[in-house]
Amino acid sequence: MKTLFLLLSLCAPFVLIAQPLTAEQSAQFKTQLIAKTRTLQTMQADFQQKKHLNFMSKDIETFGKMAFAKPSQLNWQYTKPYQYRIIFQKDNITVNDAGTVSQIKADNKVFKKINHLIISSVTGDMFDEKEFTISLSQSGKHTLVKLLPKDKTLLKYIREINLYFDAQYLVDRVKLIEPTADYTEIIFTNKKLNTSIDEANFKI
């Protein structure tokens, strides 16, 4: 169960009034984002993750690094305040919890959807109207893509996903809102695109 909630946390409270994009603006943004996604072979970044629980007065903060390589290799590594790694490779998920290694076969519906959701959030390739109700708006300097899951199983864990893209069509921030209104927010920094990544990043 711990792993499931950490996986959900991978998909990241600024009070800004979002202005809806017109149909023409939305289509243009999607076209540009897809074009950017096609050029993206690798991505590395640092991240800060905040977990907001309504019953707690202070958010829980964790820090780490991520590395992604097409088509579906992702290393998500927490470095502070604890050591925890999750490696995604196709339908396999390997977890290293402070030295204890375990494998998860992502052959059930929930894990498959979460796995796909995490990769899509990193690459920006998430415009699947069969899976989500999608809306786009301008939020400050960012374009906000709001995803409302349609799948009843996924809705048990995720009520809404907010993805904030910068002017270069790269995801800056991810906010995942649970049915209870608790949420996880992830902020990416020091992003590096299409640089060489040591294969050791995807091994435990």
UniProtKB/TrEMBL annotation:
Gene3D superfamilies documented for this protein: Lipoprotein localisation LolA/LolB/LppX (2.50.20.10)
Pfam family membership, one: LolA
SUPFAM superfamilies according to UniProt: Prokaryotic lipoproteins and lipoprotein localization factors
Organism domain of life: Bacteria
UniProt KW keywords: Signal
Signal peptide: 1-18
Protein name, per record: Cell envelope biogenesis protein LolA
Organism name: Capnocytophaga leadbetteri
Species lineage: Bacteria, Pseudomonadati, Bacteroidota, Flavobacteriia, Flavobacteriales
